[in-house]
Amino acid sequence: MKTENNYKGLTPLAAAISLALAAPIAFADEETVKEEDIEKIIVTSQFQQSLINRIPVKPKELPFTLNIVDSDLLDARNFARPIEALTTLPNIFRTEDRRGTGGTGFLSRGFEAPILVDNRVQNNFRGTGARDSSFVERYEVLKGPASIASGPVGAGGIINTVTKSPTENSAANVKLRADQFGSTGVDFDVNAGELDNSGTVLLRVSGAYRDFKFDADEVSRKTTALRPVAIFNLSDATSVKASIAYTKHEVTPPAGFPLMENGDIPDGIDTGTFAGYQNSEGEVEDTLVNLEVSHEFLDNLKLTVRGSKQQTDFDYKNTSGLYNYRGDAGLEAMAAYPQTAVADSEATFLDAQLAYTANFWGQDQNIVIGVAHDERLFDRRFNGYGVDGPFSIADIDQPRYGDGGTGEPEPFTLNNSELESIFAETALRPTDKLTIVAGIRYDQLVQDTTNWRRGNEYLVSFDDSELTMRLGASLETSENINVYASFAQAFVPQFGLRSDSKPVPAETSDGFELGAKGSAFDNMITFQAGVFHTLRNNVALQDPNNTAGGPAFVVTAGEVKVKGVEFSSDIYPTDGLNITFNLGYTNVDVTEAGDDEITKPVFPELTGSLYVNYEIQSGALEGLSLGGGLRHMGERDGPKVTWDSQSIADLNFGYQINEEIEVSFDILNLTDELYVENTFQNTVNKLTGSAVLGAPRTAVLTLNWKI
């Protein structure tokens, strides 16, 4: 394979980005790129799965920060929820899902980071969604506004889940996992390859069944997942990709408990404490259908049409956490609210994109134009409830049983929204060392929210539009180093309940970033570093004055200023030795409070990680890898309390028995650090309600068999 053909036919920018940034070859000369990596890029690039996916731009040309966590890194970290490996990245912080539904959420640069699936926004209520780890090829984390690339999806950053696609060569993989709490699970991935020996039809099926156990015996989670995906190459010019992703979670969630007024964890509470109801339960079913058609009219003119439909059903009862609704400092009056609830959501997405490549100034120039339609429905219903308690802190471990509330669930919140978009992007190359990436997007949002509370019905409508733009440039200053600068705007729809029944307006933002990326010392070190500054307007934040038992209201900040730095690097001092270092600093400051009493979001100013791994290269122990590291989250200032910083240590051991079988043993949270994880949750009076602790020390044994 000749290197001059490496990027031929790459309509998505993403494939090149993803593989190159994930591997040590990230900013090497094209001559050093391995042939098998190029083949993987080309297969992936046929369809638009990645974040910046319409224009073929080499990785070092990108004028913004992008981190990649691929399947190898997910296996190396081996977290119970593999996506939690993102917590090792700079300025990324995990928020706990206290319903325990198999998913989890994240903040980026201080604010919620929406999670996409194959570059499309998905439903993600309480951590549900069609992104089971058995479906995942890699995660891509784009920092800062991403409105042109992916629609109005967040100004702090977005996380894209790139799912597995069929490839020509058949293969299969089975992963078995168990831990000391009794959890067991099996993941499988069968790539059938070409079904007709001509490459016309390719098929791949992934899935999993897991039975999770926890330190608290009453907590449990069972997950079933299945995703078939097929590619139909109808001709040399036309291809179709179709998939159905199904996930189901059955849970007894951990619920939660209130903290002391100073933020301390009460004596006698640890990860083995069960603060919920013995008969609490939740069931989630999520189905996502995707279809994508790609047609090349000419070698330099390509049309892509995509569509998806997602349905999520969430039923749960008696999952309330404990609250100190009286505000007693001694925690002698905790209460809960047994209830039954139902949440249904639907999402319909359609878009069409036309990509064109021309050659002038001696370089390829790229442009894409497109339209998109995004329709959402979210219907949440509750039945009546009473107050159960008070419970003494001394009796927190006593078995409790909820009555499920009274009557059938009745309407509580109904959200409807339609978003119509038109966009255009271009990558211009005046010289072979300068790339200018520009985009413009128009969004028209119509949003209706009906909520029922205190016996009244409120209909709040919001209709707005915005023209946003992105402009960035990347300059090659030496053979292996590029510097970049970018400006990007965002328009982000927001849902929520305000206590005054006013609509929650869409958020707008302007973001600036300067940085550099590249490699040094003959690719011994690869790095990317950036400095950012973003002004965000009409940011919806959780109301710090919510009262126990009431709805979770939001308030709106007039202006929020976010600034910081981040640095990521991979170092390869010698064969078999890898050092990964990440460091991020984010400062979030509410500069205009708007109409409400505002406190800034809870986010650690300092985040970072350091991991070292060494694989023995020869001798009797060849193939044995030894590693470990630290994840650090700095102090977090909340609206009522301040959480201490935390450093979590992990140890990782692996051994390649033969070409097909690898076994690993991992100890996560080695020092058994006790810390509160869900600082994104609502606050109640003077305390933080429904606090949930981070995972305790966990020993994991994994067998990975490649057939």
From TrEMBL:
Its domain of life reads Bacteria
**Keywords, alphabetical:** Cell outer membrane, Ion transport, Iron, Iron transport, Membrane, Receptor, Signal, TonB box, Transmembrane, Transmembrane beta strand, Transport
Specify where it is mainly localized: membrane
The TonB-dependent receptor plug domain extends over: 59-158
> InterPro entries from the entry?
Beta-barrel_TonB (IPR000531), Beta-barrel_TonB_sf (IPR036942), Plug_dom (IPR012910), Plug_dom_sf (IPR037066), TonB-dep_rcpt-like (IPR039426), TonB_sidphr_rcpt (IPR010105)
What GO terms in the biological process aspect are recorded for it? siderophore transport
What range does the record give for the signal peptide?
1-28
Q: Name one Pfam family in it.
A: Plug
Q: Name one GO cellular component term.
A: cell outer membrane
Q: How does it sit in the membrane?
A: Multi-pass membrane protein
MF terms in GO: siderophore uptake transmembrane transporter activity; signaling receptor activity
User: PANTHER family given for it?
Assistant: FERRICHROME IRON RECEPTOR-RELATED, FERRICHROME OUTER MEMBRANE TRANSPORTER_PHAGE RECEPTOR
Kindly provide the name given to this protein in its UniProt entry.
TonB-dependent siderophore receptor
